[in-house]
Fold:
Amino acid sequence: MTKKMTITSIKKSKGASKLVMITAYDALFARLLEPSCDIILVGDSLNMSFAGKGDTLSATLEQMIYHTNAVAQGAKSSFLICDMPFGTYINPDEALRNSIRVFQETTVDALKIEGGEDKAHIIEHLCSNGIAVCGHIGLLPQAVRSEGGYKVKGKSQEEQEQLIRDAKAVERAGAFCMVIEGVKADVAKEVAKSVSIPVIGIGAGKDVDGQVLVFSDMLGLFEEFTPKFVKKYMDGASLVKGAIKSYSDEVRSGEFPQDIHTY
Structure:
C-alpha cells in the first residue's frame, strides 16, 4: 500500500472494492503483510496462535496494547484495528475507560467490539467519545464457553432476522464497518445488503464486502486444526520445520558455518 486507508475510504469501498484484512501480532509479520492488505487486525486470537490457549478469553488489555504497539512498528502505513478483549467492555463507562487507554498508549486507528443489538449502546457511547469502532457479529469467539462451542449462525429464519437486526444496530450505533463470522453464506449476503457500511467476512462466504483471516492459519503455520473456511496459501509449518532440520543437520556435520559466514 502506498497510502493508508481511512475510515472514509473504508466506508467508500462498500460496493466498489473488496477489503483485505488479516491478523498480525508482531512487527516482523506486520511488515511482511502490510504491502498486500488494507487493514491489519491485532486479534485476541493471539491468545491461541501465540500463547497456545484453547480460546481467546484470557487475553488481557495489557497483552493487546503490547502487541498493537509491536504491529504498529512494523506496519506504519496500514489501518490498524485492535480487538478489545473479553471483560473490558461490560458496560459503557468501563468500555470507554479501557478504550481511551488503548488509544492513548498505542497509535491504533480503531477498536473491535463483539456483539450486535446487545452491545449497540456501548458502541454508541464509544463513538460519541471519539473512539472509532469496528463491530463483530455472528459467531462470537468471546462467547464460546457460554454457547458451548463454536457454532455456525444463520441456520434458522430467526437467526437470520437477528443477524440483520444486529448489523443495523451496529451501524446505527456509529461503527464504520463490521466483521461477520461463522455465518451461512446466503445469510451473510443478506446481512451485507442490509447495511451501508462494509461487512467483512470470516467463514461467511464471498458475497460480503471483504475477507479476514488469521495469518497463521492461511500460511499453514498453525497445525492443531484448520477451520473449514480457511484456505492454506502455503504449508508454512513444513517449510519452517524443513529449514530448521537443515540448519540442525549442518551444525552437527560441521557444514555450517562456512568461510563466508565467518569474520
